[in-house]
């Protein structure tokens, strides 16, 4: 019979053999294989940083037919405002719990936002576009979602994008032409994207901050995920030039000859 020292040596050898064998095995259920030199947390961090991107904002609604961004036949100075988001990543994003809001104001020592929209449970596929209208007084055609329920599908009137309405019930609530911001807030409360213009300021602590031009007509829109937001003479809700929205070779309709009207 082997002595204590011999038993210990045999046990240690067996454990070492199991460890070595396990190192050569593929990742099993619930375990991800990772490349040499990659830290275990890198893939998890990458997943948590997949957020939608703000690609277009209409805050200066032109008078007359040129300002009818939602296409209901009636121009509304606030109701036709919209914010467009795109999933520029190669994996789906669960939009449920994300919030769009304007800049925070203060009243009676408490901060508040006049515009605030929380997405319901819905998946935004890679390259897919979502458009959120202010919606005051709007009449809709095709699938349109609210904060309570996602649309049944894409809306062909807006390039097949997922269309939502904030359902604002006051004609005085909207984005300010002279200065405001749009915040995209993740479900965990972090401000992941902030776009501001005019006399507004970026939200402190926002992960991505960018200033949009102060326009007198049309929207501000980016042409690529990395590019800046630029002033346009028109607007294209649901139709993003970068990846999604229109069919190949099809030129999206654009409003023309928009004229500035201060709010």
In words, what does this structure look like?
- The chain is α+β, with helices and mostly antiparallel strands.
- The chain has one domain: Immunoglobulin-like, CATH 2.60.40.1260.
- It is 11% helix and 22% strand.
- The protein has two helices and 15 strands.
- The protein has helices at 4-23, 40-48; strands spanning 53-58, 82-86, 93-94, 99-101, 105-107, 110-112, 116-118, 123-124, 129-133, 162-165, 179-185, 191-198, 209-211, 220-221, 230-231.
- The strands form four sheets. Strands 10-9-2-1-14-15 form a six-stranded mixed beta sheet, with no helix packed on it.
- A hairpin with an 8-residue loop joins strand 14 and strand 15 (230-231).
- The longest helix is centred in the first third of the chain and has 20 residues, at 4-23.
- The protein is globular and about 40 Å long.
- The H-and-E topology, N to C, reads as HHEEEEEEEEEEEEEEE
- Annotated CATH homologous superfamily: Lamin Tail domain
Annotation field: number of helices: 2
Number of strands: 15
Separation of the first and last Cα atoms: 94 Å
CATH architectural group: Sandwich
The radius of gyration is: 25 Å
Topology:
Elements (H helix, E strand, L loop, with lengths): L3 H20 L16 H9 L4 E6 L23 E5 L6 E2 L4 E3 L3 E3 L2 E3 L3 E3 L4 E2 L4 E5 L28 E4 L13 E7 L5 E8 L10 E3 L8 E2 L8 E2 L32
Parallel strand pairs: 9-10, 12-13
Antiparallel strand pairs: 1-2, 1-14, 2-9, 3-8, 4-7, 4-11, 5-6, 11-12, 14-15
């Amino acid at each position: 019979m082997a002595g204590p020292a011999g038993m210990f040596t045999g046990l240690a050898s067996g454990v070492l053999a199991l460890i070595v064998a396990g190192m050569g095995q593929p990742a099993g259920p619930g375990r991800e294989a990772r490349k040499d030199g990659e830290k275990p947390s890198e893939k998890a961090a990458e997943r948590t940083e997949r957020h939608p991107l703000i690609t277009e904002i209409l805050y200066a609604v032109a008078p007359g037919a040129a300002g009818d961004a939602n296409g209901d036949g009636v121009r509304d100075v606030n109701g036709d405002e919209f914010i467009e988001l795109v999933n520029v990543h190669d994996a789906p994003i669960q939009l449920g719990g994300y919030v769009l809001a304007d800049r925070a104001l203060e009243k009676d020592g408490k901060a508040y936002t006049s515009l605030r929209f929380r997405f319901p449970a819905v998946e935004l596929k890679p390259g897919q576009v979502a458009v959120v209208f202010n919606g005051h007084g709007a009449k809709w055609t095709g699938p349109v979602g609210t904060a309570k329920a996602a649309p049944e599908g894409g809306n062909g009137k807006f390039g097949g994008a997922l269309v939502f309405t904030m359902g604002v019930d006051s004609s005085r609530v909207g984005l300010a032409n002279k200065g405001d911001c749009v915040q995209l807030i993740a479900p965990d409360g972090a401000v992941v994207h902030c776009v501001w213009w005019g006399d507004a300021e970026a939200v402190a602590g926002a992960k991505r901050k960018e200033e949009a031009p102060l326009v007198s007509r049309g929207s501000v829109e980016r042409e690529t995920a990395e590019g800046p937001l630029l002033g346009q003479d028109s607007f294209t809700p649901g139709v993003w030039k970068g990846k999604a929205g229109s069919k190949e070779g099809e030129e999206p309709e654009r409003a023309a000859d928009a004229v500035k009207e201060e709010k």
